[in-house]
Amino acid sequence: MKRVMILNGPNLNLLGVREPHIYGTTTLAEIKQACEREATALGLTITFHQSNHEGELVDLIQSARENADGIIINPAAYSFTSIAMVDAIKAFEGPVMEVHISNIHARDEHHRHSKISHAATAVICGLGPYGYVAALRALAERKKG
Ligand code: CA2
Question: Which of ligand 1's atoms lies nearest the C-alpha of 111?
C-alpha cells in the first residue's frame, strides 16, 4: 500500500462554507492538508480530487486501477444513487474505504442507505474530517498485515 487516491463527490467543495451544523466548519482544502500531513507521516503518497460529475468520478475510479493501490471515497449524494460508481469500484482490486463526515445512519431516510457500502472494504462515518485520516491509517496498517 503506497499510493492512495482520495475522491470526493458532489457539493463537498462547499464544506465549511454552508450547513456547518451538519458538516462542520472544516473546509475541503483543510481536509486535503490534513491528509497530506498524515500521508507523509505514514509513508504514503496521495492524490486528492473533488468532482460534481458522476462520469468524472467513474473515470477517476477506473484510473485508480493503474494509478493507486487503495481508494478513499466520500461519494456524497452519489452514495445513494450511483450504480455506475458501484460497478467501477467493483472493478478495482485494492481496498476501498468509504468515508462520510456525518453519521449517515442518524440522518433522514434519503441519507441512510449507501449503495457504495456493498462494494467497499470498510465504511467510516460520523467521525467528521478525522474519518479521512482514520481511513489513511487503516490503509497504512494493511501493508503490514
Ligand atoms: O457526511 C458526508 O460526508 C456525506 O457524504 C455528505 C453528503 C451527504 O449527501 C451524505 O449523506 C453524507 C453531502 C455533501 C454535501 O456537502 C455540503 C457541504 C456544505 C454545504 C452543502 C453541502
Answer: 11
